[in-house]
Amino acid sequence: MRLGSLELKSDLFLSPLAGYTNLPFRLVVRELGGIDLATTDLVNARSLLERNPKAFKLIETNAADRPLAVQLFGSVPEEMRDAAVFLQEQGVSAIDINMGCPVRKVCRVGGGSAMRTELDRTAELVQGMVNALKIPVTAKMRLGWDDQNLTAPDLARALEGAGVAAVFVHGRTREQGFGGTVNLAGIRAVVEAVRSIPVIGNGDVTTPEAAAKMFNETGCAGVSIGRGAFYDPWIFRRTRHYRTSGELLAEPGFDERVRIMCRHLDLMIDVFGEEHGCRMFRKVAPWYSRRFGPVNEFNKKVVTISSRAEFLEVLERYRTWREQFLGPDGQLLPKFQPAPMVASFMREPAVASRDTIPVPKGPVDVW
Ligand SMILES: Cc1cc2nc3c(=O)[nH]c(=O)nc-3n(C[C@H](O)[C@H](O)[C@H](O)COP(=O)(O)O)c2cc1C
Asked: How far apart are CA 75 and CA 96, in angstroms?
């Protein structure tokens, strides 16, 4: 797998999830294996240039967090270029551009000459960045505004002309938000629109089988996983194993999930300090617990923690409470086991509409 001059050991990627894909989470998924390039949350180019401390925290990294892409957003070409050059000097391996805004404008005008103007302006911005950098520039987009305006193939082709090394495509339209089914044919149309750059598919991949299906049906060169990595930070390793051997490794058990959850908390404390790290972890722990079985007791208490000791106490109490749901073998009784994960595009259409992956709170409408 190659993004321009950057050679990668994996064709699986971690999608940017603002508020979540910080250094601790990236280190967790890297330690579990199967991934190479990971991306930060989106970062405002101007804030970086203004040396805003919050923006600097978003790009905090260390030697184990390599190779790293930083996702930038902004619409002023000089700011995007200068922020990217600054990041290159800091040792970042690639710059990803969040195409949320240009795509919105492109789609709003509904094609025609206005769309062409917007595409040209976007391509110019990208070209300015590509010309100033040695590291690769990539772009992340949705399929378009709605089903009548699937602009991603045109945008991807224009960006390839401007020199991007790859495009990441979430297989949904802006109108879909996070609902409905990921459109594999739509991703395929982007793969077919570009000449030679890799297209990386994205959306709803929560199992190794779903990743394999996305590869097979779209012809994409890579798959990027966001929320699926929350349920299952092992997904990259399990997907790699499935694709190389055909064997589906079992989902990790409770003890392994707890071990990694504790590791994640320790890294949050290292990076953000004990109190702030624990407060931030209040919204992270419930993702781990989604695969624990009955979990009310845990979820109610974990949202109050402010220290590591409090977290460990919540966990110990939960372990004791959870025993009532276990069989003699120490495993959850079948009726309490969580249902298997199934990606939207793996289900029958009627099921897909009522059983989607939860979306955390936040301004997700722009992603
Ligand atoms: C909480 C949240 C935050 C997100 N933040 C970003 C972001 O900063 N930049 C971006 O390009 N996409 C962002 N996205 C979109 C994801 O990168 C991804 O395209 C989308 O969630 C679909 O992939 P998934 O089903 O594997 O999560 C975000 C999505 C969520 C749910």
From this structure: 14
Q: Which residues have CB under 6 Å of ligand 1?
A: 15-19, 41-42, 71, 98, 140, 170, 202-205, 225-228, 359-360, 362, 364, 367
What Cα–Cα distance (Å) separates residue 185 from each residue in 117, 148, 189, 212, 367? 27, 14, 6, 15, 20
Q: For the segment 113-153, what is each residue's pLDDT rounded down to a tens digit?
A: 566 678 888 999 999 999 999 999 999 999 988 888 888 99
User: What is the rounded distance in angstroms from the CA atom of residue 226 to the CA atom of residue 239?
Assistant: 14
pLDDT tens-place string over residues 73-109: 988 999 999 999 999 999 999 999 998 644 455 445 4
Residue 43 is encoded by which pair of tokens? 């970062």
190-227 per-position pLDDT tens digit:
999 999 999 999 999 999 999 999 999 999 999 999 99
Phi-psi region of 103 (alpha: psi -120 to 50; beta: other; left: phi over 0): alpha
Secondary structure class of 108 (helix, strand, coil): helix
d(CA 151, CA 103): 8
* CA of 55 relative to ligand 1 center, distance in Å: 18
